[in-house]
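Module 6 notes. Inverse folding takes a fixed backbone as the condition and produces residue identities as the prediction. Think of it as a translation problem where the source language is geometry and the target language is the twenty amino acids. Below is one complete input and output pair. Work through it position by position during the lab.
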């Protein structure tokens, strides 16, 4: 956990111009903010919907999630580790198209932009509106975690013999071994110098017989104890998005970029 405020992360840093693709492979973009507060008011989702009814005019949906946390305990076997589980209810507010989703759970706010991706400016407007509204209604004490995650679904209309044609990733088993690759899952977690985390998941997914499909999932996140002011929170979110954009470009080739631009 980063013990200092991250309200100025990335300010003044030079960020390469973000590429805009004709057909971006983004299946879902998610921004999640976790807060700390004394008492969770269960009326907040309903009040959020009232305040944002022009944006989220679909029928609310309730989900029940089970969360398991690893914790230190006094165990007879001396291991000192145990699992604590708890159930959490989440309310989802959607627009009529179903492409924008605002999710609310106890001290957790997330905003999703589903395919077709609307673009960063539109997505950021949704995030800014949700963060300001939540801060006004819930009055949280602090922000404990912020994450910006982009799940990319890349479909190639052919059988890919070499992943290096499209992706800059770790080497997989060579076909010289006499085996053929059916599926794989690669996952890594790294840290920037200032403690911000980057989790990358790369996997092959199901596809039509004449196609090859892959998931490239990038999650940039930070844990902090910063005050729950909307503007510093939004600055951190923008910084995390810039890092995700750079990380994505570092993991694809020009052939993939051509694919996202309709072959141009």
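Target side of the pair, the amino acids:
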């Amino acid at each position: 956990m980063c013990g200092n405020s991250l309200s100025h992360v990335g300010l003044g840093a030079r960020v390469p111009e973000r590429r805009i693709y004709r057909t971006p492979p983004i299946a879902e973009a998610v921004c999640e903010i976790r807060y700390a507060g004394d008492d969770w008011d269960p009326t907040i989702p309903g009040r959020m919907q009232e305040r944002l009814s022009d944006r989220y005019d679909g029928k609310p949906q309730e989900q029940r999630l089970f969360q398991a946390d690893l914790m230190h305990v006094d165990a007879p076997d001396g291991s000192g580790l145990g699992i604590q589980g708890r159930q959490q209810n989440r309310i989802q507010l959607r627009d009529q198209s179903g492409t924008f989703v605002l999710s609310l759970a106890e001290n957790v706010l997330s905003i999703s932009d589903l395919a077709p991706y609307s673009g960063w400016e539109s997505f950021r407007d949704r995030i800014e509106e949700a963060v300001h509204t939540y801060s006004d209604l819930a009055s949280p004490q602090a922000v404990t975690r912020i994450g910006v995650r982009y799940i990319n679904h890349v479909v190639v209309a052919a059988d890919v013999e070499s992943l290096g044609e499209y992706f800059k990733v770790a080497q997989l088993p060579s076909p010289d071994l006499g085996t053929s690759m059916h599926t794989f899952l690669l996952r890594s977690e790294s840290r920037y110098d200032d403690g911000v985390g980057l989790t990358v998941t790369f996997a092959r997914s199901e596809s039509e017989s004449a196609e090859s499909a892959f998931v490239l999932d990038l999650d940039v996140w930070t844990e902090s104890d910063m005050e729950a002011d909307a503007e510093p929170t939004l600055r951190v979110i923008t910084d995390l998005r810039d890092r995700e954009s750079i990380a994505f470009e570092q993991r694809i080739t020009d052939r993939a970029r051509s694919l996202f631009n309709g072959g141009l």
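Reference fact for the lab report: The chain has a mean pLDDT of 84.
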